[in-house]
Every structure is written in structure tokens, then in C-alpha cells.
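Colleagues,

For the teaching module next term, I've prepared a clean inverse folding example: a structure given as C-alpha cells, and then the sequence designed for it. I'd like students to try predicting residues themselves before seeing the answer, so please don't circulate the second half yet.
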């Protein structure tokens, strides 16, 4: 049986985290943890799922950013498309808030690359004199994945945007396209991102 008090607490955490995601550009995980601290709750409090936070982000954007967010999202998608075209050889797929439509000017861009040779994307960046920082992040199923993080100027927003390239094996592509719990495509290729502009 659901505990109404716990449900309302999770909703409060989700709403507070959503504000931090939109106003400060935090990722969902850190935003949830900071929301717990800000609300003075126990560190062991049950946290809302990412779906709940995303729903709160949508509500927050509709309430406070309806005038500005569509333009910011379009600018980020345009920048993402530019990087995807540059990296077309590596089967780029856009994910995260920029793909799902909840991004604002402070959001980072997440692009998954599916490479025959995992070092090839890194070599391509070096060949084009792109400064990047390699790190290891959690992949689709929590497995360690190499990420190449760089900064790219977005003239339309007057912002320097974080672009994160997650490097997967070519064989991971099939599993990456399974629909999520809401029946949505979790990421889109070049054609799908171009279609967003036509829509």
C-alpha cells in the first residue's frame, strides 16, 4: 500500500530538484541529493525516480519558462546537430534533455557514438584540434563507458555549452534504440534530429 506522506515527500523532492535542473543546469542525480539537503530531509529519504523529476521539469518549464525555453531548446538542438554532422562517421545519436525537449540554456548536450574502433572518435577530435577531457561515466546499463567532454560556443545563446560524447561499441547500437518505459525513443540519429526542426 502506498504511503501518502512518502509520496508527497518524493513529489516535493522532485519539484525542488526540477527547479535546480532548470535554473542551475544540474543533472537529475545531484539535483535530487541537493534537494534532500535543502529540504532538511534525512539523507536516507526515498528519492523520486528520474521520470518523476522529468515530469516536474516539464511542469516548471511550462510555468516559468514557456516564453524562453523553446528558443533555447532549438539553439541547443542546432548545436547538437552540428557536432553530429561532424561526427557522422561514428553513428551519432542524441539523447538526454536536448533530445527529449526539456533542455534549457544551461543544459549540456549528450551524444552517443557507436564506433567500430573505440579510439577512432578520440583520434578524430585530436585530428581536428578539438580540446576535450576523457573520463569514465556510467553507460546505458550502469557499465563504465568512456566519455569525451568538450566545450562548444553557442552564439545564439551567448553560452559555452558542455558537449559529452559517450563512446560505445558498434554492437551496442541495437540495444540503445529500445523504447523507454514511456514508449519513447531514448535517443535519435541525425535524420531524427533533423526531423525535429521540420516538425
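(Answer key — instructors only)
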Amino acid at each position: 500500500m502506498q504511503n501518502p506522506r512518502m509520496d508527497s515527500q518524493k513529489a516535493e523532492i522532485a519539484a525542488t530538484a526540477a527547479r535546480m535542473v532548470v535554473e542551475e543546469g544540474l543533472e537529475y542525480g545531484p539535483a535530487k541529493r541537493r534537494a534532500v539537503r535543502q529540504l532538511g530531509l534525512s539523507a536516507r529519504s526515498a528519492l523520486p525516480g528520474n521520470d518523476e523529476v522529468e515530469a516536474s521539469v516539464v511542469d516548471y518549464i511550462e510555468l516559468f519558462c514557456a516564453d524562453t525555453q523553446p528558443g533555447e531548446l532549438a539553439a541547443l538542438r542546432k548545436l547538437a546537430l552540428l557536432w553530429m554532422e561532424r561526427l557522422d562517421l561514428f553513428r551519432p545519436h542524441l539523447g538526454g534533455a536536448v533530445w527529449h525537449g526539456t533542455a534549457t540554456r544551461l543544459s549540456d548536450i549528450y551524444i552517443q557514438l557507436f564506433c567500430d574502433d573505440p579510439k577512432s572518435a578520440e583520434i578524430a577530435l585530436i585530428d581536428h584540434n578539438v580540446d576535450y577531457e576523457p573520463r569514465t561515466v556510467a553507460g546505458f546499463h550502469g557499465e563504465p563507458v568512456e566519455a569525451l567532454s568538450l566545450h562548444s560556443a553557442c552564439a545564439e545563446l551567448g553560452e559555452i555549452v558542455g558537449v559529452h560524447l559517450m563512446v560505445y561499441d558498434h554492437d551496442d547500437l541495437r540495444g540503445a534504440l529500445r523504447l523507454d518505459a514511456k514508449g519513447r525513443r531514448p535517443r535519435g540519429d541525425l535524420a531524427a534530429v533533423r526531423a525535429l526542426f521540420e516538425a
